[in-house]
UniProtKB/TrEMBL annotation, chain A:
GO terms for cellular component: plasma membrane. This is Branched-chain amino acid ABC transporter permease. The keyword Nucleotide-binding does not apply. The chain crosses the membrane at residues 6-29, 62-85, 97-115, 142-162, 194-217, 223-252, 259-279. Pfam families: BPD_transp_2. It comes from Marinomonas hwangdonensis. It is found in: Cell inner membrane. One of its GO terms (biological process) is amino acid transport. InterPro entries: ABC_transp_permease, BCAA_transport_permease. Its main location: membrane. GO terms for molecular function: transmembrane transporter activity. It is a multi-pass membrane protein. Belongs to the binding-protein-dependent transport system permease family. LivHM subfamily.
From TrEMBL, chain B:
It is a multi-pass membrane protein. This is Branched-chain amino acid ABC transporter permease. It comes from Marinomonas hwangdonensis. GO terms for molecular function: branched-chain amino acid transmembrane transporter activity. Keywords: Cell membrane, Membrane, Transmembrane, Transmembrane helix. The keyword Transmembrane applies. The chain crosses the membrane at residues 7-26, 32-52, 64-81, 87-109, 114-131, 167-186, 207-233, 253-278, 290-312. Pfam families: BPD_transp_2 (PF02653). It is found in: Cell inner membrane. The keyword Lipid metabolism does not apply. It comes from the Bacteria. InterPro entries: ABC_transp_permease, LivM-like. Signal peptide: none annotated. PANTHER family: ABC TRANSPORTER ATP-BINDING PROTEIN (PTHR30482:SF17), HIGH-AFFINITY BRANCHED-CHAIN AMINO ACID TRANSPORT SYSTEM PERMEASE (PTHR30482).
Length: 287, 322
């Protein structure tokens, strides 16, 4: 592997890892604050991608579509939390798994009902369609760099919100002691709705930005969900910092494995995860 | 008495005689005989999962790994164009799966709760991708089984596996044995300790039991039986492919479990029949059957947690009370 190829793969790995972070952060946030394992989280990524496709067809503007999709995802999050997820707070893990599997069934059925089962694609927005030449033959698409930068901005925003704002303070407080937060007069159920809706929106936004660089197919949600599980397990459940480090590691392992050991590439992240677990059963940044 | 509850006894008296006579009613209608055979096989798989989830409290989302391994181990071990002995391979497959489960269990059972759910899933995905990507084992297409095993013991051959009705009875017998096995296991001293671990792990440890060993043994036993079900499935359809290992297989089994009633062992059969029956009916009616199935699952979790077995038990208990 020469140095140019190495750099290209490095950027690819980081970019993929950053998209994974966007999705995994929602998963880990919801788990950390509410103690809920949401298997339907990947479905939100799928919904985001399909919504982006639908609105790009109708409005022609990628930015506008992204905005509308994010708002719709936020609404879905609020509705799902208020009707279904709310019932799970006092239930065991098995109920969480089963209920969210039921949700996956429903979301998948709705997807095939509304948009069919053919693979779809979204074009890269014109303003970002250029490529940067790296050497004579190899060039790197601007859109992928945009995706990476966008994810970093979101990550920075999350860091700011969680560590510097009142909402973030409540989220952190809710993580460590639910009863105490309630006793202090905070409406914890509203907080939970907000956190869940933000989690859903993050997954959907990841689906939107990933839409132009991946094909939109049924089952894409489950595929990404399981990669996110690996991220979250490596990073430590409930830790946003862990999700960030885990996502970058998984992105890099996955990208380099597909170059170095193509035959076993899809399983390398799981091998990597098993290895991490042997050393640290609670993940790298367990809280 | 092995079957304490009324509902259980009723089920045993209704289900097994009916299942025994079924092929006669169906008059050799191969499609339905095959469908029922698949239900028997899936019931074995779901029952082994019920033991783990319902009795041992070990929630796994990776049980399909052993289901798939049962099939893959057969095509890996058996020569391609030569009939092997069914019973010998049953032993091989269960023993090797048990050994694999022992190693994986040592890793997986160090964790619990959410972590365990995700790690079992990850191991299953690892095997899924391994076999999906392997050229030797046909990638995503899987492998065909050209010759089915023969079933002679001491020169006596009871089942002809190419005959659907014979295969049906083999699966029914396996299901019956699995049910008895788990019932005996639950009522044995081993089962009591497993129960005690559920109620209070700390006290059980204080009584001198090594609870990790009990969990590990349970995991190994259930995994080996899951593999046996996968082995039967592969023989029935004559192929094995990675979809057997996919996480949807594990997820569907959990769904069957909640339909039937978690922790009741025989509920696994009820759940499998219900799921497959619903799937069949809905699929013929609409292409978007998943919408209804998903809705039903959500409803079951919300309001009908005990499943069909629980419903039956409540119904018969009430009659007892009067």
């Amino acid at each position: 592997m020469d140095s140019t190829l190495f750099i290209v793969q490095l950027i690819n790995g980081i970019q993929y890892g950053l998209v994974l972070f966007l999705i995994a952060s929602g998963l880990t946030l919801v788990f950390g604050v509410m103690g809920i394992l949401n298997l339907a989280h990947g479905s939100m990524y799928m919904v985001g991608a399909y919504l982006a496709w639908y609105f790009v067809q109708h409005t022609g503007s990628f930015a506008l579509s992204a905005f509308i999709s994010a708002v719709i995802a936020l609404c879905i999050g609020v509705v799902v939390e208020r009707t279904l997820i709310r019932q799970l707070y006092r239930r065991n893990h098995l109920d969480q798994v089963l209920l969210t599997i039921g949700m996956i069934f429903v979301f998948n059925a709705l997807q095939s009902l509304l948009w069919g089962n053919d693979p779809l694609g979204v074009e890269v927005p014109e303003a970002l369609a250029a490529s940067i030449p790296l050497t004579g033959i190899i060039e790197y698409p601007v859109y992928r760099i945009f995706v990476a930068v966008f994810c970093i901005v979101v990550a920075a925003a999350m860091y700011y919100v969680i560590n510097k704002t009142r909402l973030g303070m409540l989220i952190r407080a809710g993580e460590s002691n639910r009863e105490m937060v309630e006793c202090l007069g905070v409406d914890i159920s509203r907080l939970y709705t907000i956190v869940f809706a933000i989690g859903v929106m993050l997954a959907a936004v990841a689906g939107v930005v990933a839409a132009p660089i991946s094909s939109i197919v049924p089952g894409m949600g489950e595929h990404i969900l399981i990669s996110c599980f690996v991220v979250v397990v490596i990073g430590g459940m409930g830790s946003i910092k862990g999700a960030f480090v885990g996502a970058l590691l998984v992105g890099l392992v996955d990208t380099f494995a597909s170059v170095l050991v193509p035959e076993l590439s899809s399983m390398m992240i799981y091998v990597f995860m098993a290895f991490v677990l042997l050393l640290k059963p609670q993940g790298l940044f367990s809280s | 008495m092995l079957f304490k509850k009324r509902a259980e006894r009723l089920f045993m008296w209704v289900f097994f005689p009916l299942a025994l006579l079924m092929p006669m009613f169906l008059e050799q209608n191969e499609y339905y005989v095959n469908k029922l055979t698949t239900i028997m096989i899936l019931s074995i798989f779901v029952m082994s999962l019920d033991y783990l989830v319902g009795k041992c409290g070990l929630i796994t989302l990776g049980h399909a790994m052993f289901y798939g391994l049962g099939g893959y181990l057969f095509v890996i071990l058996a020569p391609e164009y030569e009939a092997v002995n069914f019973w010998v391979y049953t032993f091989y497959i269960c023993a090797i799966s048990a050994a694999i489960a022992l190693v994986i269990g040592l890793l997986v059972l160090r964790t619990s709760g959410i972590y365990m759910i995700m790690i079992t899933l990850a191991f299953a995905q690892m095997t899924f991708y391994y076999f999906s990507g392997s050229i030797d084992y046909g990638g995503t297409d899987g492998v065909f089984v050209y010759v089915k095993p023969e079933t002679s013991i001491f020169g006596l051959s009871l089942f002809d596996l190419d005959n659907p009705t014979h295969f049906y009875y083999l699966c029914l017998l396996s299901l019956f044995n699995t049910l008895l096995f788990f019932k005996v296991l639950v009522r044995s001293q081993f089962g009591r300790v497993v129960d005690a671990i559920q109620v209070n792990p700390g006290r059980t440890t204080a009584l001198g039991y090594n609870i990790f060993v009990y969990k590990l043994m349970s995991y190994v036993v259930a995994s080996a039986l899951g593999a046996y079900a996968g082995y039967l499935f592969t023989l029935q359809y004559g192929f094995v492919n990675p979809s057997m290992l996919s996480w949807t297989t594990s997820g569907t089994a959990l769904v069957m479990l909640i339909l039937g009633g978690i922790g009741s062992i025989y509920g696994a059969i009820l759940g499998t029949i219900t799921y497959e029956g619903l799937h069949y009916t809905l699929e013929h009616w609409t292409e978007h059957w998943m919408l209804f199935m998903g809705g039903l699952i959500i409803l079951m979790v919300m309001v009908f947690k005990k499943g069909i077995a629980g419903f039956l038990e409540d119904l018969l208990e009430k009659r007892d009370g009067k």
